[in-house]
TrEMBL record:
Protein's job: Part of the MsrPQ system that repairs oxidized periplasmic proteins containing methionine sulfoxide residues (Met-O), using respiratory chain electrons. Thus protects these proteins from oxidative-stress damage caused by reactive species of oxygen and chlorine generated by the host defense mechanisms. MsrPQ is essential for the maintenance of envelope integrity under bleach stress, rescuing a wide series of structurally unrelated periplasmic proteins from methionine oxidation.
Transmembrane segments: 21-41, 61-77, 89-106, 126-146, 158-175, 187-205
Residue ranges occupied by any Ferric oxidoreductase domain in the UniProt entry: 57-169
UniProt organism field: Massilia aerilata
Sections of the chain in a coiled coil: none
Keyword presence, Ribosomal protein: no
Cofactor info, note text: Binds 1 heme b (iron(II)-protoporphyrin IX) group per subunit.
Membrane topology classification: Multi-pass membrane protein
Subcellular location per the Swiss-Prot or TrEMBL entry: Cell membrane; Membrane
Keyword Transmembrane: yes
Cofactor(s) essential for the protein: heme b; FMN
The name this protein goes by in its record: Protein-methionine-sulfoxide reductase heme-binding subunit MsrQ
Complex formation: Heterodimer of a catalytic subunit (MsrP) and a heme-binding subunit (MsrQ).
Amino acid sequence: MTKNAPVRTSISPSPKQLAAIKSLLFVLALLPFARIVWLIVRQVPVEPVEFVTHGTGDWTLYLLCATLAVTPLRRLTGWNWLIRMRRMLGLYVFFYALMHFLTFLWADHNFDVGAMWKDVLKRPFITVGFIAFVLLLPLAATSTNAMIKRLGRRWAQLHRLIYVVAPLAILHYWWMKAGKHNFEQPIVWGTVVALLLGLRLYWSWSRSRSPATSRSVS
């Protein structure tokens, strides 16, 4: 006779509490951009373009990791309400990535799309960053309730592109830092992304093994 596995109780905030949490998350995710704008307006950074480029790029990566962390946290804690935060985090990933791209397009190429395209094809770290940004476009465009309903199961399949975007973002960050031989942060965030994606692979492998295990036991 086997013992039953312990049941994890799920903590669910009330609708008002959930709305407050989402509002707080919205403000917190916007604060880094507000700080960047404030410092630029006050002419604090010595190299304003570099400051904006690095700031928006860094926060794209931070929020990407936060988005990927939602599912593992939900599974490990039983807090199913966390899934309600994922869409907002994902849209903020796109927002910061868009600001990062526009800074590159404006500062480096003065909105000359032809010159930008030549740069994309010439420099590998820009190439992978551009690919990651392009892959984010359909994810942002299909993040409405109407598109989720319209696409059905295909929506989940499409949004698995985030598992491609994350490694590309790390590679972009790695190659960008390689020019200055500064690998400390790329290693840290690469490890975080590898862990978050590795957990998904492990859980997927466990699910695929469970039917076979059940049959062998019976």
